[in-house]
Here is the input.
Amino acid sequence: MTDLTADAPVAEQNGSGAGNPAAPGGGRTVASAVPSSLVARLAGGITAAGEPALVETVAPLTGERLASLPQSTPADVEVAYELARRAQRSWAAQPVRRRAAVLLRFHDLLLRRQDEVLDLIQAETGKARLHAFEEVLAVALAARHYGRAAHSYLRDRRRGGALPVLTHVVEARRPKGVVGHISPWNYPLELSIGDALPAFVAGNAVVNKPDTQTALTALWARELLVEAGLPADLWQIVVGDGPVIGPAVVEHADYVSFTGSTRTGRDVAQRAAARLVGASLELGGKNAMLVLADADLDRAAEGAVRACFSSAGQLCISIERLLVHRSVADEFVARFAERTRALRLGGGLAYGADMGSLVSVRQLDATTRHVEEAVKAGATVVAGGRPRPDLGPFFHEPTILDGVTPEMAVCAEETFGPVVAVYRFDTEDEAVAAANATSYGLNSSVWTKDLRRGRAVAARLRTGTVNVNEAFAAAYGSVGAPMGGMGESGLGRRHGAEGILRFTEAQTIATQRLLPLAPSLGLDDRQFAAVFTGGLRVLKALRFK
Ligand code: NAD
Here is the structure.
């Protein structure tokens, strides 16, 4: 396999005299980091019977063959549900604290063994190691949070009864059963296991369909969770084409958790609705960052780099629209562009690159189409703008566009690549209206030195998360608070109470004592109605809730 470790600046390599520099590589190849013996071991974790058809994946960094994986059929999905359902019964009977202990052990194992999975994430997605590490960070935060807090989220709660003292009421949380969990390729560790952890600790089993391109990362996470104490059958992984086995995953689920595009999410939601099972949908975005006139421009420019180019922009909460106050726009754009041009692109399996590759030719085509169409229609390229085949087949430069107008696709459609457009505004109202002028509503970011003003602007934005003076990590990393989308960005939330309670059914157990809620003690119907009418007035006067 090719060693993508060229140390020389790109300008020297391709003779173009321009473009982002290449990061030093570190000398390790994908083939040595992900040997066929590891692939074979991990592939053994896929639920697929008989002699399954094989599907090949490609390492985005080099375009060479990465793995050959067995594909599950809809019948295999059914088997996966049977195995998961059987395992779930005894798992649900265990005390929450024992289930939570598995998450806490997993937390420690993950931190200790992170290099193994960083290699896998980089091999499967082509992202920079720093961005792969963000996944380790996110999963560790979720494992600790739900490991420590599940007990309090799930415990029985006393509620006020129909009749004070006489009606004793407990609200309990029961697991849904088996969760169908469909995840995409862009954050393969976080989006396969991160969302599964609260499902497990709430007493569920999970049948997970990761994207085929990133199945090895999910399979590795499953192995590690089993090592931490999860019963092996509780997490089934099926691999195959979304339109072929995805519907089967929804067909047998007691609840569906889906992360992916808005288009597929709609289909999944309709199938779940037809079966009357619940679904949470984490979908796309066209996220805006607002730079107010009083923002610290250096911090904002640094933040914009993280906001727009983490994982080469293949991040649902990535910023693709930069709204800047006209009075500081030229200065801000100059500082942002300078930092963007200096980003080191690289495909080495080591820290050092600021941005990696896109995952596939599909993502590269979508990115180049948006840039080329916009430029043809009159937009200007402030930084980047070109694919970089000299670095690897799917590399594209981090790109800033100016002069983007509404008829250009890049203006409203999610690119899901390293491309951002700059727009100028004069008033705060104008900025808020522009930020909200999208059918999506996932994430946004506001930059100002006046924190109170930042939070006031945030409250006017129609997105599930808003970050003040940060790109996305402040809200996403705060796993005790909900994260998800408004509008076409989704339904439901991960993280916090909502992120775990979605995997449960509420059950109310009401015990009536001494007197029934009906005429008794010799009262006829009319007297019963009179006594209760008086009683209701007293309860309100005594401020009962
Ligand atoms: P996608 O919708 O094409 O695929 C997502 C998953 O769904 C994959 O596992 C795929 O195989 C499966 N799938 C495809 N067709 C299916 C069907 N008919 N039934 C059931 N499953 C099916 O999305 P993608 O292109 O892989 O991922 C990128 C998208 O995901 C972007 O739009 C991005 O914004 C979004 N995303 C959202 C979040 C979030 O938290 N809101 C996080 C990451 C990615």
Notes: DSSP finds 21 helices and 18 strands in the chain. Residues 1-17 have pLDDT under 50 and may be disordered. The CA atoms of residues 290 and 446 lie 5 Å apart. The radius of gyration is 26 Å.
